[in-house]
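Thread: quick sanity check before group meeting

JM: Hey all, I'm pulling together slides for Thursday and realized we never actually wrote out the predicted structure for the chain we discussed last week. Dropping the sequence here so it's in one place. If anyone has concerns about the input, flag it before I start.
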Amino acid sequence: MEPFGMSFQDFIAFVPCGKTKGWELISRGEVETYKVDGATRVTTESAKAYVTRQLDKQREAA
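JM (edit): ok, ran it. Output follows.
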Protein backbone atom coordinates (compact mmCIF):
# COMPACT_ATOMS: atom_id res chain seq x y z
CA MET A 1 0.00 0.00 0.00
CA GLU A 2 1.27 3.44 -0.92
CA PRO A 3 1.74 6.00 1.87
CA PHE A 4 -0.95 8.70 2.06
CA GLY A 5 1.55 11.51 2.47
CA MET A 6 5.20 12.47 2.47
CA SER A 7 7.38 14.84 4.39
CA PHE A 8 8.35 18.16 2.88
CA GLN A 9 11.90 16.84 2.34
CA ASP A 10 10.56 13.79 0.53
CA PHE A 11 8.29 16.02 -1.56
CA ILE A 12 11.10 18.25 -2.81
CA ALA A 13 13.15 15.13 -3.62
CA PHE A 14 10.16 13.59 -5.45
CA VAL A 15 9.41 16.60 -7.66
CA PRO A 16 12.50 17.42 -7.62
CA CYS A 17 12.87 21.07 -6.62
CA GLY A 18 14.50 23.23 -4.01
CA LYS A 19 13.05 24.29 -0.67
CA THR A 20 11.95 27.72 -1.88
CA LYS A 21 10.11 26.30 -4.92
CA GLY A 22 8.55 23.61 -2.71
CA TRP A 23 7.10 26.20 -0.34
CA GLU A 24 5.93 28.28 -3.33
CA LEU A 25 4.05 25.28 -4.72
CA ILE A 26 2.41 24.72 -1.34
CA SER A 27 1.49 28.37 -0.83
CA ARG A 28 -0.04 28.57 -4.35
CA GLY A 29 -2.15 25.49 -3.63
CA GLU A 30 -0.47 23.40 -6.34
CA VAL A 31 -0.32 20.48 -3.88
CA GLU A 32 -2.46 19.50 -0.89
CA THR A 33 -0.94 19.51 2.56
CA TYR A 34 -1.84 18.59 6.11
CA LYS A 35 -0.08 18.89 9.47
CA VAL A 36 1.10 16.16 11.81
CA ASP A 37 2.30 17.59 15.14
CA GLY A 38 3.17 20.82 13.37
CA ALA A 39 5.12 19.16 10.53
CA THR A 40 3.85 19.79 7.01
CA ARG A 41 3.02 16.71 4.97
CA VAL A 42 2.16 16.67 1.25
CA THR A 43 -0.35 14.13 0.01
CA THR A 44 1.20 11.58 -2.32
CA GLU A 45 -1.75 11.90 -4.69
CA SER A 46 -1.35 15.66 -5.07
CA ALA A 47 2.44 15.38 -5.54
CA LYS A 48 1.91 12.86 -8.35
CA ALA A 49 -0.82 15.03 -9.87
CA TYR A 50 1.51 18.04 -9.88
CA VAL A 51 4.24 16.09 -11.72
CA THR A 52 1.65 14.76 -14.18
CA ARG A 53 0.42 18.31 -14.90
CA GLN A 54 3.99 19.44 -15.54
CA LEU A 55 4.59 16.54 -17.93
CA ASP A 56 1.34 17.30 -19.77
CA LYS A 57 2.38 20.96 -20.18
CA GLN A 58 5.72 19.89 -21.63
CA ARG A 59 4.05 17.50 -24.07
CA GLU A 60 1.65 20.21 -25.23
CA ALA A 61 4.51 22.65 -25.78
CA ALA A 62 6.47 20.16 -27.90
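AS: nice. Residues 44-61 form the longest helix (18 residues). The chain has a mean pLDDT of 96.
JM: adding both to the slides.
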